[in-house]
């Protein structure tokens, strides 16, 4: 399996707009994409404008397919202008919680 961890620092005052677009994307990704196993949205406790997206896909092709979905495209159309900084960690998944 394949994972990305996306660190997203928002522009000031953009948290509500970000969540309004990102939460439906995360939900649809897991619900509608057979290759998306996990899409968690985390908000930093110390900095509420800092978010982490933790996503697990079957493989890199499943992530590529994710970026073609209507829910991804709709989300990106909104969130791109809200982002101050963003970085991505790409990793192979070696173990997951079997109860998930």
Automatic annotation (TrEMBL):
Cross-referenced PROSITE patterns: ABM (PS51725)
Residue ranges constituting the ABM domain according to the UniProt record: 2-93
Pfam family, one: ABM
PANTHER family linked: ABM DOMAIN-CONTAINING PROTEIN (PTHR33336:SF3), QUINOL MONOOXYGENASE YGIN-RELATED (PTHR33336)
Annotated protein name in UniProt: ABM domain-containing protein
Originating species: Oceanisphaera marina
């Amino acid at each position: 399996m394949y994972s990305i961890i996306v660190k997203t620092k928002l522009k000031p005052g953009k948290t509500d707009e970000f969540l309004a677009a990102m939460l439906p994307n995360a939900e649809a990704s897991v619900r509608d994409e057979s290759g998306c196993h996990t899409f968690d949205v985390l908000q930093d406790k110390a900095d509420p404008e800092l978010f982490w997206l933790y996503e697990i896909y079957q493989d890199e092709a499943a992530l590529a397919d994710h970026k073609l979905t209507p829910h991804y495209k709709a989300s990106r159309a909104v969130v791109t202008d809200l982002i101050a900084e963003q970085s991505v960690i790409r990793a192979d998944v070696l173990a997951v919680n079997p109860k998930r």
